[in-house]
Design goal:
The complex is a heterodimer.
Chain A: E1 2-8, H1 14-31, H2 33-38, H3 43-55, H4 58-83, H5 91-108, H6 114-143, H7 147-166, H8 201-218, H9 220-230, H10 232-237, H11 242-269, H12 280-290, H13 295-319, H14 325-345, E2 346-352
Antiparallel strand pairs in A: 1-2
Helix pairs in contact in A: 1-14, 3-4, 3-13, 4-8, 4-11, 4-12, 4-13, 5-6, 5-7, 5-11, 5-12, 6-7, 6-11, 8-9, 8-13, 9-11, 12-13, 12-14, 13-14
Chain B: H1 2-5, H2 8-37, H3 45-63, H4 66-90, H5 95-118, E1 133-134, H6 144-148, E2 150-151, H7 153-171, H8 173-183, H9 185-190, H10 195-221, H11 233-243, H12 248-270, H13 277-296
Antiparallel strand pairs in B: 1-2
Helix pairs in contact in B: 2-7, 2-10, 2-11, 2-12, 3-4, 3-5, 3-10, 3-11, 4-5, 4-10, 7-8, 8-10, 11-12, 11-13, 12-13
The chains are: A mainly alpha, B mainly alpha.
Chain lengths: 353, 316
């Protein structure tokens, strides 16, 4: 019988940690050849159009930034939660919750000037996502309910809350589609570059990454949050109020996811729609892992995925490979990253038993 | 109004719908219980169900044989669970993240393969789905007969599996092995049980059931494949495992309660009641969460769950 033996290896130098995600991305792209070939796509043409579609023209390059923005937010959301071992799989629902509250503000706060309304909309989106994420945190800390399951199930609850509202009180009058009235002009994100959709949410995403880096490394809370993640019992006996730390971590995590929703609402769609997120919340999980839970890593991983998402459309048009290749690549990337991470700590030997 | 709703036809219909809607959850819950009792939380369940649903549909569409579809779904479920076993058991990676990886990967793969094969037609292709099979005599009993005993073969099979899996887990040597490996892998290893092999096989067996649960959705409940056909039923099954305290019978009871709420939602929609249907769609998930709250404090979790087994790292 052949088995695998996993042996702990000596700690590797720090630069390996940075190389690992890059290696994982390259391996993922190599493995992507299998579904591309099965779909009958020419390999060189496919990869060429994948990258050309995402980076080849000014408009496409800026679109890659546009797609990266929500991914950075959800990636940060998941990374921040996972770092504290708060298993928040609910970024999708929190994104929607943020978008929902921002929609309500964006429709109703008439007469407020833009310089005031924009911060209000952004903060309301943060609060919406934060509140939704605090539910699994409270259930976890007070009732011992598994956070993975509760945060996942809450995604579906939020989708149906949205459905109820968009087919009901929040439906645009006269519309037969489940969509909200348009938000006020003053609630829209300004476009920062001409002839593109390069909007305020993009620098905001970078700013968020910077702030999370700061919280992680320079604040007591960032330290406590990490301590809870490393060993919750030790943190508790070390005098950290673990319940409060998990709750705050959840609020920030959900808030970040909510900001992804605000961006999609205020810069892309201007109406709340049932499909305002094509699964950004779930992509956030992959991005967080690929980014090694580090804010800078999250930014890079988000760009990798946004290249794949944007490029997949051009590739599909030119070669006939279905756009769902992007989702396949996403799933593969997570699995390959996991294995690569393992290899930094362990050696794998094939042994005969 | 109330009289209109609660007449015999409605109740018969509701019981029938409960039976139907609980079938995929029973399959998936039982499959997940086998895996978790051996010590592996399989969060790949949602994607595995979707792959089962897609594969079952695809194979039936091409061969015309419903059972070939079911078999293929079981096989695909098994293969994906073997991948899960490779990652979480043999490499010892985080069960949470490996499972999510499997779900994301197989969700993408299911949509990719479907699109590759069928393109994007305006009207989704359909198959001739399973027909209900009436059990002689029993199906003639008033009210419950036509609903309980005029069901799909897969539904009967799901119900049959409840005692079968219970007996397997509690009364056989194989079950004892699975439970020991899930509770105390070190002890199991000491008495000569191959921990990783047992976990791998448990995952594979569970994966087959999960795949069949998915196939039920496209071959019996509906006759087509839609991207949201599973719609969180995998996650609900995970919740049912916790709700049922990792016991097949109690887990199945949870599945039937969920099936009832799902069925009620369908029947009330059918009556054209003026309540937004999204409210009904939400209720099963909401009640699942509430149920989790009520049981989680006293939950009995298999002690070895979530822990990869490495002989060198005893007690680690």
């Amino acid at each position: 019988m052949i088995g695998l033996k996993i042996i702990k290896r000596k700690p590797l130098p720090g630069w390996v940690k940075i190389i690992i995600p890059v290696v994982a991305v390259v391996i993922t792209l190599i493995f992507s050849a299998v579904p591309i070939l099965i779909a009958g796509g020419n390999l060189w043409k496919s990869y060429y159009y994948l990258f050309y579609g995402a980076l080849g023209t000014r408009y496409n390059l800026l679109e890659t930034f546009v797609k990266a923005s929500p991914l950075i937010f959800t990636g940060l959301a998941v990374a921040f939660a996972f770092r504290a071992k708060f298993w928040n799989i609910g970024a999708e629902g929190q994104l929607l919750a943020g978008a929902l509250l921002a929609t309500w503000v964006g429709i109703n706060f008439t007469g407020v000037p833009q310089f005031l309304l924009l911060p209000i909309v952004i903060i309301s989106g943060f609060i919406g996502g934060g509140i939704w994420a605090s539910i699994p945190a409270i259930l976890k800390t007070k009732m011992k309910v598994d956070d993975v399951v509760s945060s996942l199930l809450l995604n579906y609850v939020m989708i149906h809350i949205m459905g109820t509202l968009l087919f009901g009180p929040l439906q645009q009058p006269g519309s037969s589609w489940p969509r909200s009235p348009g938000i006020l002009e003053a609630a829209r994100y300004p476009m920062l570059l001409a002839r593109s959709r390069f909007h305020l949410g993009i620098p905001l995403a970078f700013l968020a990454a910077l702030i999370i880096w700061f919280i992680n490394n320079k604040t007591v809370f960032g330290y406590q949050s990490k301590a809870v993640g490393v060993n919750i019992k030790a943190a508790y006996f070390g005098g950290i109020n673990t319940t409060s730390v998990i709750l705050k971590t959840a609020l920030i995590s959900g808030g970040l996811a909510g900001l992804a929703g605000v961006g999609e609402l205020c810069a892309i769609h201007y109406h709340l729609l049932m499909d305002i997120s094509p699964g950004y919340g779930y992509s956030g999980i992959v991005i967080a892992m690929l980014g090694n839970l580090h804010p800078l890593g999250v930014v890079f991983a988000s760009f990798f995925f946004s290249i794949v998402l944007v490029g997949a459309h051009t590739m599909s048009r030119m070669t006939g490979v279905p756009t769902y290749i992007a989702e396949v690549i996403q799933g593969m990337a997570l699995i390959i990253m996991l294995i690569s991470l393992l290899l930094t700590e362990y050696k794998i030997r094939v042994v005969r038993k | 109004m109330i009289g209109e709703i609660f007449n015999v036809t409605f109740i018969t219909g509701l019981i029938g719908a409960t039976m139907r809607m609980s079938t995929p959850i029973i399959f998936a819950t039982l499959g997940e219980i086998i895996a978790e009792r051996s010590g592996v939380l399989n969060l790949g369940i949602e994607g595995t169900m979707l792959m089962g649903a897609m594969t079952g549909f695809l194979v039936t569409f091409n061969t015309g044989s419903l059972w070939a579809g079911v078999l293929a779904a079981a096989l695909v479920g098994m293969i994906l669970s073997l991948l899960m076993a490779f990652l979480s058991v043999h490499l010892g990676l985080s069960q949470h993240v490996s499972g999510l990886g499997i779900t994301l990967f197989s969700t993408g793969l299911a949509m990719f393969i479907y699109r590759l094969h069928f393109g994007s037609p305006i009207v989704p292709p359909t198959v001739e789905p399973f027909r209900q099979v009436a059990i002689p005599f029993l199906s003639k009993i008033s009210v419950i007969g036509p609903s309980l005993f005029n069901q799909y073969v897969l539904t009967y099979l799901a119900w049959l599996l409840i005692p079968v899996i219970s007996i397997l887990l509690y009364k056989t040597k194989i079950g004892l092995k699975i439970r020991t490996v899930g509770e105390n892998p070190f002890a199991a290893d000491t008495v000569g049980v191959n921990v990783n092999l047992t976990r791998t096989l448990s995952l594979a067996a569970g994966g087959a059931l999960i795949g069949i649960g998915g196939a039920f959705l496209t071959l019996a409940h509906q006759n087509m494949f839609l991207i949201d056909v599973v719609g969180g039923r995998g996650w609900v099954s995970i919740a049912m495992v916790i709700f049922g305290n990792w016991d097949p019978l109690k887990g199945a009871i949870g599945a039937v309660i969920f099936g009832f709420l799902d069925g009620l939602q369908l029947r009330l929609q059918g009556l054209g009641i003026q309540i937004p249907f999204h409210v009904f769609l939400m209720i099963p998930y909401l009640i699942t969460i509430i149920a989790l709250v009520s049981v989680s404090r006293k939950a009995f979790v298999p002690a070895g769950l979530l822990k990869p087994y490495r002989r060198e790292e005893k007690g680690g």
